[in-house]
Design a protein that fits this description.
With 244 residues, the protein is α+β, with helices and mostly antiparallel strands. The protein has one domain (2-55, 86-242). Helices cover 27% and strands 26% of the residues. Helix 3 (36-44) runs antiparallel to helix 4 (88-101) and helix 4 (88-101) runs antiparallel to helix 5 (109-123).
Length: 244
């Protein structure tokens, strides 16, 4: 298990669902037809992705100062973008964004083949043993960015084992199996969990949601240091199966 988790930690930092009738774009068409807007929705706000945005309320220095002088862009914020990278629709959106950026549809057959070969390992990664939660963090403050990077790049699996969990509706909290932080200025990291804990799967047949919780550093007075996210399993279904 440890070897599998280690391998997944390195593979997933590389930065086909059959079309079926339904209401969402990922149910209606294959991922190779997704637009940039659809990819962004999948990766930012979908059954497999959520955002946590922390802000700081600024007090106006004078009652006579116009509120219009303080724009949302000036408000300090820290944002955590969470994705289930072990879910195939998320990996498909990552690859489709790369296709769009490289103008895949206009490439020659040879160039397409080379692109497909370079991304095959990511799109077809074996996920039967682990759940991979990818987290990216951003901020509009350079000092905050430095503090965030300093914090997350100093964390280890052992340090987070008692504060990062994944669980079903009524099941036990499953502690993190491995933590992997990106280096070289990339503001991202991954929580990797085993799909089974003490002989039981994370999600049981009657579980209505999948819950993620983790601690984060309080920087600039933003947030309370604890993130709780709930993902509805009925929305995470593809071809009749819950995908995560």
């Amino acid at each position: 298990m440890r070897r599998i988790l280690c391998s997944l930690g390195s593979v997933l930092f590389l930065t086909c669902i059959v079309a079926a009738p339904g209401g969402e774009f990922w149910e209606k068409k294959e991922y190779g037809q997704w637009s940039q807007k659809e990819c962004s929705k999948m990766l930012e706000n979908s059954p497999w992705a959520k955002q946590l945005t922390l802000t700081q309320v600024l007090v106006m220095p004078s009652a006579t100062e116009s509120a219009a002088s303080t724009t949302s862009a000036e408000q300090p914020f820290i944002r955590y973008q969470v994705q289930f990278r072990s879910a195939l629709p998320i990996r498909q959106a990552v690859i489709r964004q790369l296709q769009i950026a490289r103008k895949y549809d206009s490439l020659s057959p040879e160039q397409r083949q080379e692109f497909d070969k370079s991304t095959q390992g990511f799109i077809s990664a074996e996920m039967s043993e682990a759940v991979v939660v990818h987290v990216a963090y951003t901020t509009n403050s350079q000092p905050n960015d430095l503090e965030l990077a300093r914090y997350w790049q100093s964390q280890t699996t052992e340090m987070l084992r008692n504060s990062v969990y994944l669980s079903g509706t009524d099941g036990d909290k499953v502690p993190i199996g491995r933590f992997v932080a990106a280096r070289g200025g990339q503001g991202e990291f991954q929580f990797i969990f085993p799909r089974q804990f003490e002989g039981r799967p994370i999600l049981g047949p009657n579980d209505k949601s999948l819950k993620l919780e983790f601690t984060y550093p309080i920087i600039g007075g933003m947030g309370d240091g604890r993130c709780f996210m709930e993902f509805k399993t009925e929305k995470m279904t593809v071809a009749g199966n819950v995908v995560y």
